[in-house]
Design brief:
This protein is an alpha+beta fold and 195 residues long. The chain has helices spanning 4-16, 83-92, 102-115, 177-189; strands at residues 36-41, 45-50, 54-55, 65-69, 74-82, 118-123, 127-131, 134-145, 151-160, 164-173, 192-193. The protein has one domain: Protein Transport Mog1p, Chain A, CATH 3.40.1000.10. 26% of the residues lie in helices and 37% in strands. The strands form two sheets. Strands 3, 4, 5, 6, 7, 8, 9 and 10 form an eight-stranded antiparallel beta sheet that branches. β8 (134-145) and β9 (151-160) form a beta hairpin. The chain is globular.
Length: 195
């Protein structure tokens, strides 16, 4: 039950705010550079986040960063874990695929975890990219979260650092997907390790 409490809180918050600001669908793509501020986490990494999002603690207990805007129905978290620990656990579970990179294994593991609480209706093919010199992949998907009526759009970015792997997860209601897409992309592409 402990693991379900953040999910229940998220679902309640999302469902109670689903009508707020529905008439003023202003596209976030108009946000300028001065609309963001840089957040550093534990001297490990930093991200540029829109000023309309504020810190929270109720989205996911594993996350090292959690931000949201209830008004705009935009949510973001970052989960990070040591690469060696991830690989060891998934090898013990016999779920590590030697044909794939650590990053690809991490992506698949995280998508599998997400699919336990959602019904994925649409998923893009993973797109490889480099973010500030690091290997990364992005995946977009639309899903129904267990217990919710509205479809959710997720923007997932997986990043491989020297010691850790990271998942940047941003989401919103599907009908706000276009409104937030550029902002979520800007956030993910600002990810940078702190030396």
């Amino acid at each position: 039950m402990k693991n379900r409490i953040p999910a229940i809180i998220f679902l309640l918050l999302l469902s109670t705010t689903s009508c707020i600001n529905s008439k003023s669908k202003k596209d976030d793509s108009t946000l300028g550079a001065n609309s963001y501020h840089t957040i550093s986490i534990d001297g490990n990494y930093r991200l540029d986040l829109p000023k309309f999002m504020t810190g929270t603690t109720g989205l996911n207990e594993e996350a090292s960063l959690q931000y949201q805007s209830l008004l705009k129905e935009a949510y973001l978290l970052v989960i990070d874990e040591p690469k060696a620990d991830f690989e060891e656990v998934y090898r013990v579970l016999e779920q590590y695929d030697d044909e794939l990179s650590v990053l690809q294994n991490y992506r698949d593991a995280r998508l599998q975890i997400l699919s336990r609480t959602t019904e994925i209706n649409n998923k893009s093919e993973p797109q490889s990219l480099r973010i500030n010199g690091l290997d990364a992949e992005t995946v977009e998907l639309d899903a129904i979260v267990n217990g919710m009526d509205n479809e959710i759009s997720y923007f997932l970015t997986f990043v491989e650092g020297e010691d850790n792997v990271y998942m940047i997860m941003a989401w919103t209601l599907k009908d706000k997907k276009i409104e937030h897409k550029k902002t979520f992309k800007t956030i993910a592409e600002s990810f940078e390790l702190i030396d």
